[in-house]
């Protein structure tokens, strides 16, 4: 009883629902004996991973679907044991070096190099190289990326690396230039709607277009989220209606409430309560930049035009500081404090002008 | 022993005596000295029966005298002389008193100063004189005769004895003083050899005790009670003074400096040139006696003042004065004067022969005193206000001891008082003087009660109950040990030692400078504690042998390192079956090491005394030391040292040292660098009052008390502060503060990432000083511990859980860690829980199916619940009946095989083994089949894969593979390693 997301995941390049042209190109690529390192980039929920798996299947056949997960242990130079979970088939190895945190460089050096250095003994299979899939590549530290780039060049004969990233901005240019970039954009609204309706059809349900469109909005064109929400909506109310309620994600609700509290009251005491809420969000693993984004969206939409620009200015300023700082809460709080300040000032001026 | 030897000596010289006697008149000095030694023996002969008896009775005491004399060559002659004196005195007077007087004499010569040499010479002179005087002086006749006898008799012996020694002939030939000295030394060696180690040791002990007593002598009684007259600058010029005893209103140094100020000269030894002897209480009896002998006027403190006034032409204020001591001795003095005069005339005759007049005077004085020992004695008693000790001392054997210190004081004072640290100099000498321990509920009182009742409480007959830890008025009767704890410099050790002293216990002290390992404590201390103390025997304090020990373990928190390993346990064991009270001391009562000890100890916590209490003490010290310092300054110093008495005194001493140089530099008080706790720091950062006296540097220093915690504390608490100024500006200030903190965090990151520690001052400004400036005001709420630490670790934990979940579901989902957590988790949980909540037991298979699809462990369910929990939101699992949950767990254990990561989860292993064992065969067979058919290129697996396989095989074998159902579905991956070979 898998979730629909996984149940109806396409497994072959030919069965992909969107970016079909790109899928065709990938298939052609596989037909050649060789292909370069690849870097799939695109937002979360756009189907990068699905596309990579389809590509691998295209290359190696169904063997790549026989996955096994293993825990591998590495010893860092400082003699610390790091355990990293890998998923592998006979033809490929999928690893997320950033699981090792700051020790990802060790993983890159030890594991990837080791795999890359070994030749396939029998080439009677389809390919003479193995594939290493690095997921969440943009989480790699600079050190790890530098360790990777030489490996990519040196062992190109025995392995290919496929990196999956959300944004290429955090990948060093040296790696970017070594990879063939493949952009997997988020599907557009019509594509998502058709996918959702297809899914419902296979489940024997009818999905009103309005509801599908609202799902698209709510999921921010994240296909995974849209499918999950669809299933949740189905659980809530079995035959779909056009205006039925779509359950929200908890953290989104929480974030919205936080923003509205900021608008409702601007005092140090309130700021302290806001701080607690921000802490809660951070504890839940909501990335601080998402928090920033959520707050700013809510705040800007709820405040007067005159302070919108100022709010955005503060947001950019503090988000930038947060990225180079260590403790996220300091900068989130500073942003909230600044916003409270200008908002309060704006309100009091408003009151004064009203008095006149 | 001694006696025997003495007699031995005596006999030997006896024959040559006569011959020598004639020679004795001749100037050979060396022989005379020997004479002195022999005198005693001589007398033994003469008075032998009484002498011996007496000696036996007071053996210890006399032996001490001898040892002293023996140990120091110069002293010897004197010692010898005393012996004869003793015997003589015995006849007239009560022996005890005799002894008292005598011992005093004995000690004087000890120091190897010139004065001593002079004595020797004098001795010789005297002996010469005495021979002449024998008949002339009637009153002293018996004594004199004896002396002459003795003198004459030993001289031959001396000659004999020292004959082997080279210097001797010289001395006979020439009168030169130098050879004499030389001779003495060998003689002394001989003598010392006579003494056993024991005796010597005893003497050392006794003298140490006496010295201690001297040291503990109270300082002046009423400092500053009298006004020091202002005389003309040189009104005392040409006059010499000796100050002895404790004056009423001045310390001795003070008195001396007063005298010097007015042109007078201060001597340390009473000599002929001395013009006035200034006496106070507990005056050195020896000095008094000598002064009387020499007819030196004796002044009281008032007398001194009167003298100053007189000399500078002012009217006398008080008349009573100096005569008082003299009058006491009036009658005796008359006699003495006669003697003196006659002697003096003789002296003059001899002058040409020996130039050492002053020394001679001493000598004469000594003899006098021996004769009239009673007078100084009485005087002393009158003068002695310090009751307990001195009174006891009067008892026979102890009298000597008492006398020891007096002569010593002369020398000791000059050295020690100058060189002593103020802290030691002004140490409390009785428990009343301990600062801040006066009350009835004070620790001193408690400790005294506890200690005094200790032997009653622990006599083995009754078993005291362990008191309720919260009981208010516990007297500690249960405990065998007391633990004094408190910050340094407030008098814990002083309290302990003084209380012990007060109650007459003997203290055995171990402090951090002693090794206190388990073995040492066990061996040494425990044997030590079973010993009996002989000190009572020597000091004559009532019971001859004391069993009342106290073990003082100072600085127990310093028991650390290899040397003291196991010391704490041993100490506790020691306390458990101790037969004596133990007093432990430590600074930090909450130290983990101490905590185990606390359970066995009567807990006495010392608090810092209040500022006013310390101030009184400090001011009186200032006065005594003549340091002029304003009370405000004293307060400042005390506050700066955080009410540390010891350190305050040290600061005052420092101030006084540089006082004359520049008053201004004295103004700047050295402040104790206190380590403040972060709470205190953050309070100071924001409190406006504190800011008044702080420079920018001070403010940034606050940050450095703990630079890693300070920014967190500031960030946590700045919202609690109500800043001064317009209320409408509060938010602006808050925003500015938050901005500064944000910048501070950037600096912090830079510091930590690049080890750029030189940026710390920058961070100090952003993270502490600027917020302090912006939010300067006062706290409205409690200061809290930074929440960031807890939240951070919590989010770290959640992140780990999320990663675990991601790892487990990774095979069958495509999501990244973040998406699994934010998007998947709630739906996944719902998917599992929904059937359970809806259908109860019937929902179990459906839930189990969902779990299997995503390769979840049973634990992952709880983990999911935790990851999706939000404050104020109910856990979906709460809606599920407990029995249903149990059913789920049961069926999960039955059906679901282990995954490769199950081992890490650390559970389940056994169960899966039990459940999956029978499946194993089929599974592996089945899988093998599929494998071989579908993947022949498996062989191509690289060597590196072998490593993987190996690892896998390990897990599979241990865990028993299973999960055939996964293998069958093409979409799902294989959860577990198959027996792939």
UniProtKB/TrEMBL annotation, chain A:
Pfam entry (one): RFC_C
AAA+ ATPase domain span: 34-190
GO CC terms: DNA replication factor C complex; Elg1 RFC-like complex; nucleus
Major location category of this protein: nucleus
GO molecular function: DNA binding; DNA clamp loader activity
InterPro entries: AAA+_ATPase (IPR003593), DNA_pol3_clamp-load_cplx_C (IPR008921), DNA_Rep/Repair_Clamp_Loader (IPR050238), P-loop_NTPase (IPR027417)
GO biological-process terms attached to the record: DNA repair; DNA strand elongation involved in DNA replication
Alphabetically ordered keywords of this record: DNA replication, Nucleus
CDD domains: AAA
Location in the cell: Nucleus
Function description: Subunit of the replication factor C (RFC) complex which acts during elongation of primed DNA templates by DNA polymerases delta and epsilon, and is necessary for ATP-dependent loading of proliferating cell nuclear antigen (PCNA) onto primed DNA.
Similarity annotation: Belongs to the activator 1 small subunits family.
Record note on quaternary structure: Subunit of the RFC complex, an heteropentameric complex consisting of a large subunit RFC1 and four small subunits RFC2, RFC3, RFC4 and RFC5; the RFC complex interacts with PCNA. Forms an heterotetrameric complex with RFC2, RFC4 and RFC5; this complex has ATPase activity but is not stimulated by PCNA. The heterotetramer of subunits RFC2, RFC3, RFC4 and RFC5 interacts with RAD17. Interacts with CNTD1; this interaction facilitates crossover formation.
PANTHER family: REPLICATION FACTOR C / DNA POLYMERASE III GAMMA-TAU SUBUNIT, REPLICATION FACTOR C SUBUNIT 3
Protein name (record): Replication factor C subunit 3
Gene, per the UniProt record: Dere\GG10322
From TrEMBL, chain B:
GO biological process: DNA repair; DNA replication
Parts of the chain that traverse the membrane: none
Main location: nucleus
Biased composition (Basic and acidic residues): 124-142
Biological source species: Drosophila erecta (Fruit fly)
Domain named BRCT: residues: 231-312
Name by which UniProt lists this protein: Replication factor C subunit 1
Subcellular location(s) of the protein: Nucleus
Keywords for the protein's UniProt record, in alphabetical order: ATP-binding, DNA replication, DNA-binding, Nucleotide-binding, Nucleus, Phosphoprotein
Superkingdom, natural source: Eukaryota
Biased composition annotated in UniProt, kind: Low complexity: 59-72, 957-974
GO CC, one annotated term: nucleus
InterPro entries found in the cross-reference section: AAA+_ATPase (IPR003593), ATPase_AAA_core (IPR003959), BRCT_dom (IPR001357), BRCT_dom_sf (IPR036420), DNA_pol3_clamp-load_cplx_C (IPR008921), DNA_replication_fac_RFC1_C (IPR013725), P-loop_NTPase (IPR027417), RFC1 (IPR012178)
GO terms assigned for molecular function: ATP binding; ATP hydrolysis activity; DNA binding; DNA clamp loader activity
Residues forming coiled coils: none
Similarity section: Belongs to the activator 1 large subunit family.
PROSITE patterns in alphabetical order: BRCT
Ranges where the record places region Disordered: 1-92, 124-203, 315-376, 911-981
């Amino acid at each position: 009883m898998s979730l629909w997301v996984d149940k109806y995941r396409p497994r072959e390049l030919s069965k992909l629902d969107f970016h079909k042209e790109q899928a065709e190109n990938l298939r052609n690529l596989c037909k050649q004996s060789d292909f370069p390192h690849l870097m799939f980039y695109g937002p979360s929920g756009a189907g990068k991973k699905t596309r990579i798996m389809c590509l691998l299947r295209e290359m190696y056949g169904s063997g790549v679907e026989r996955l096994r997960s293993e825990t591998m242990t590495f010893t860092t130079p400082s003699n610390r044991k790091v355990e990293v979970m890998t998923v592998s088939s006979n033809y490929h190895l999928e690893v997320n070096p950033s699981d090792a945190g700051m020790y990802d460089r060790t993983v890159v050096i030890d594991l990837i190099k080791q795999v890359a250095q070994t030749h396939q003994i029998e080439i009677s299979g389809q390919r003479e190289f193995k594939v290493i899939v690095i997921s969440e590549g943009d989480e790699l530290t600079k050190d790890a990326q530098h360790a990777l780039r030489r490996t990519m060049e040196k062992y190109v004969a025995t392995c290919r690396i496929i990196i999956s990233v959300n944004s290429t901005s955090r990948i060093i240019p040296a790696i970017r230039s070594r990879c063939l970039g493949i952009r997997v954009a988020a599907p557009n609204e019509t594509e998502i709607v058709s996918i959702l309706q297809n899914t419902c059809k296979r489940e024997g349900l009818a999905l009103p277009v309005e509801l599908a469109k609202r799902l698209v909005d709510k999921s921010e064109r994240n296909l995974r989220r849209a499918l999950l929400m669809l299933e949740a909506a189905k659980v809530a109310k079995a035959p779909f209606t056009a205006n039925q309620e779509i359950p929200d994600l908890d953290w989104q609700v929480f974030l919205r409430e936080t923003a509205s509290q900021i608008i409702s009251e601007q005092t140090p005491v309130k700021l302290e309560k806001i701080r607690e809420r921000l802490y809660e969000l951070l504890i839940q693993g909501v990335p601080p930049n998402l928090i920033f984004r959520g707050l700013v969206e809510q705040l800007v939409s709820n405040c007067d035009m005159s302070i919108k620009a100022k709010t955005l200015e503060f947001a950019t300023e503090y988000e930038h500081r947060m990225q180079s700082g260590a403790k996220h809460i300091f900068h989130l709080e500073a942003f909230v404090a600044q916003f409270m300040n200008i908002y309060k000032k704006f309100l009091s001026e408003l009151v004064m002008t009203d008095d006149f | 022993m001694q006696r025997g030897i003495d007699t031995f000596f005596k006999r030997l010289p006896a024959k040559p005596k006569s011959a020598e006697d004639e020679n004795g008149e001749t100037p050979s000095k060396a022989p005379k000295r020997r004479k002195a030694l022999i005198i005693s023996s001589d007398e033994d002969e003469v008075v032998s029966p009484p002498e011996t008896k007496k000696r036996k009775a007071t053996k210890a005491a006399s032996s001490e005298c001898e040892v002293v004399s023996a140990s120091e060559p110069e002293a010897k002659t004197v010692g010898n002389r005393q012996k004869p004196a003793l015997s003589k005195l015995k006849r007239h007077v009560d022996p005890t008193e005799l002894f008292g007087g005598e011992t005093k004499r004995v000690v004087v010569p000890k120091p190897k100063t010139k004065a001593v040499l002079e004595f020797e010479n004098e001795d010789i002179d005297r002996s010469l004189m005495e021979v002449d005087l024998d008949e002339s002086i009637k009153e002293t006749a018996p004594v004199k005769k004896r002396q002459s006898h003795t003198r004459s008799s030993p001289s031959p012996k001396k000659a004999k004895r020292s004959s082997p020694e080279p210097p001797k002939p010289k001395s006979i030939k020439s009168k030169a003083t130098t050879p004499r000295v030389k001779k003495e030394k060998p003689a002394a060696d001989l003598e010392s050899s006579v003494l056993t180690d024991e005796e010597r040791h005893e003497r050392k002990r006794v003298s140490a005790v006496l010295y201690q007593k001297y040291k503990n002598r109270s300082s002046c009684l009423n400092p500053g009670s009298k006004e020091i007259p202002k005389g003309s600058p040189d009104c005392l010029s040409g006059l010499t003074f000796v100050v002895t005893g404790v004056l009423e209103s001045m310390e001795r140094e003070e008195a001396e400096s007063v005298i010097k100020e007015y042109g007078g000269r201060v001597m340390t030894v009473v000599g002929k040139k001395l013009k006035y002897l200034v006496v106070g209480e507990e005056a050195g009896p020896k000095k008094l006696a000598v002064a009387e002998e020499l007819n030196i006027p004796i002044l009281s403190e008032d007398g001194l003042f009167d003298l100053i006034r007189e000399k500078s032409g002012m009217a006398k204020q008080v008349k009573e004065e100096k005569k008082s001591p003299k009058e006491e001795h009036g009658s005796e003095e008359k006699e003495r004067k006669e003697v003196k005069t006659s002697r003096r005339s003789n002296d003059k005759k001899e002058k040409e022969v020996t130039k050492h007049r002053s020394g001679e005077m001493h000598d004469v004085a000594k003899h006098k005193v021996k004769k009239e020992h009673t007078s100084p004695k009485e005087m002393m008693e009158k003068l002695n206000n310090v009751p307990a000790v001195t009174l006891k001392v009067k008892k026979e054997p102890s009298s000597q001891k008492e006398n020891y210190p007096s002569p010593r004081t002369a020398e000791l004072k000059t050295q020690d008082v100058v060189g002593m640290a103020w802290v030691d100099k002004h140490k409390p000498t009785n428990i009343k003087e301990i600062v801040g321990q006066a009350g009835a509920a004070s620790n001193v009182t408690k400790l005294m009660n506890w200690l005094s009742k200790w032997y009653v409480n622990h006599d083995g007959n009754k078993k005291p109950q362990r008191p309720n830890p919260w009981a208010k008025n516990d007297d500690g009767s249960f405990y065998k040990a007391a633990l004094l704890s408190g910050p340094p410099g407030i008098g814990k050790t002083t309290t302990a030692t003084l209380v012990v002293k007060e109650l007459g216990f003997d203290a055995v002290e171990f402090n951090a400078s002693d090794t206190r390992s388990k073995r040492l404590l066990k061996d040494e201390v425990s044997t030590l504690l079973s010993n009996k103390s002989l000190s009572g025997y020597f000091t004559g304090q009532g019971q001859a042998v004391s069993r009342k020990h106290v073990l003082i373990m100072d600085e127990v928190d310093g028991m650390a390192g290899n040397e003291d390993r196991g010391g704490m346990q041993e100490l506790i064991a020691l306390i458990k079956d101790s037969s004596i009270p133990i007093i432990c001391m430590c600074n930090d009562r909450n130290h983990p090491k101490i905590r185990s000890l606390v359970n066995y100890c009567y807990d006495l916590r010392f608090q810092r005394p209040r500022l006013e209490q310390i101030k009184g003490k400090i001011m009186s010290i200032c006065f005594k030391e003549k340091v002029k310092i304003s009370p405000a300054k004293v307060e400042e110093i005390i506050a700066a040292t955080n009410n540390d008495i010891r350190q305050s005194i040290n600061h005052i001493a420092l101030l006084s040292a540089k006082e004359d140089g520049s008053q201004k530099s004295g103004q700047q008080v050295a402040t104790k660098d206190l380590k403040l706790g972060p709470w205190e720091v953050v309070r100071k950062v924001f409190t406006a009052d504190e800011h008044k006296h702080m420079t920018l540097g001070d403010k940034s220093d606050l940050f450095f008390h703990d630079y890693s915690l300070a920014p967190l504390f500031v960030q946590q608490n700045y919202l609690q502060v109500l800043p001064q100024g317009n209320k409408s500006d509060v938010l602006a200030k808050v925003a500015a503060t938050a901005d500064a903190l944000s910048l501070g965090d950037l600096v912090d990151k830079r510091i930590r990432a690049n080890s750029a520690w030189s940026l710390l001052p920058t961070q100090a400004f952003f993270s502490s000083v600027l917020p302090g400036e912006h939010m300067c005001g006062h706290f409205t709420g409690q200061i809290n511990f930074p929440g960031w630490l807890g939240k951070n670790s919590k989010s770290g934990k959640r992140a780990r859980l999320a990663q675990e979940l991601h790892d487990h579901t990774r095979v069958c989902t495509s999501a990244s860690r973040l998406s699994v957590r934010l998007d998947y988790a709630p739906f996944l949980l719902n998917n599992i829980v929904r059937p359970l909540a809806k259908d109860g037991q019937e929902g179990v298979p459906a839930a189990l199916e969902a779990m299997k699809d995503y390769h979840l462990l049973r634990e992952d369910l709880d983990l999911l619940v935790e990851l999706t929990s939000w404050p104020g939101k109910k856990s979906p699992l709460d809606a599920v009946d407990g029995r249903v949950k149990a059913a789920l767990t049961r069926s999960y254990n039955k059906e679901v095989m282990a995954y490769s990561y199950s081992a890490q989860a650390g559970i389940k292993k056994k169960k899966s083994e039990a459940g999956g064992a029978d499946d194993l065969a089929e599974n592996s067979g089945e899988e093998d089949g599929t494998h071989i058919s579908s993947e022949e290129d498996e062989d191509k697996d690289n060597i590196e894969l072998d490593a993987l396989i190996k690892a896998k095989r390990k897990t599979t074998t241990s865990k028993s593979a299973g999960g055939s159902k996964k293998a069958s579905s093409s979409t799902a991956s294989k959860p577990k390693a198959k027996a792939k070979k």
